[in-house]
Each structure stands twice: as structure tokens, then as C-alpha cells.
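Project outcomes to date are best conveyed with an example. Our students and postdoctoral researchers have been running inverse folding experiments weekly, and each run begins with a structure described purely in C-alpha cells. The record below, which covers 82 residues, was selected by the lab manager from last quarter's runs and is presented without edits.
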């Protein structure tokens, strides 16, 4: 089954990024590169664009998580990647 991943939304515009779940393509170098590039694009978002909102697309019953700054994003990421 294909996992949809996490929707990361910016508050100041309607742009969003989908961060695939880590196992989205198996252990292949191109999927690792793709995942790392997506993660880097999220990490490059300026603090001025926070808060971000994260939603698990595979579990729509969960509410959005508000990420107030870059450190909150990193903590959220660590929790989700366990």
C-alpha cells in the first residue's frame, strides 16, 4: 500500500509541501535523495513564514499540528520518524 505522507502548509500563503513518509520508495538512492530534497525545502522556509501546519494524510482523523518555529518542526519530525 502506498502511503500519502504529511502535508506541510504555510500560513501566509496557500502553498504546501507533501513530505512522503520515510518508507515511500524503499531503500533506494534516488528515493533517499528525493526525500532529503523535500525535507531540505521545508527546512529552508524562513521563520517569518511560521507557524506551519502538519497533517498526516494517511490518518485524516488526526488534527493538524501547529509548528511554531524551526525547532518545533525538528521535534515533530523526530517523533514521526521513529
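After processing, the design step wrote out the following sequence:
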Amino acid at each position: 500500500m502506498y502511503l500519502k505522507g504529511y502535508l506541510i502548509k504555510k500560513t501566509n500563503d496557500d502553498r504546501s509541501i507533501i513530505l512522503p513518509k520515510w518508507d515511500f520508495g524503499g531503500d533506494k538512492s534516488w528515493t533517499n535523495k528525493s526525500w532529503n530534497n523535500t525535507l531540505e525545502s521545508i527546512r529552508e522556509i524562513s521563520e517569518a513564514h511560521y507557524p506551519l501546519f502538519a497533517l498526516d494524510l494517511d490518518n485524516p482523523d488526526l488534527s493538524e499540528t501547529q509548528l511554531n518555529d524551526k525547532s518545533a518542526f525538528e521535534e515533530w519530525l523526530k517523533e514521526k520518524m521513529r
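The helical segments are 29-43, 70-80. The mean pLDDT is 86. The training component of this project remains on track.
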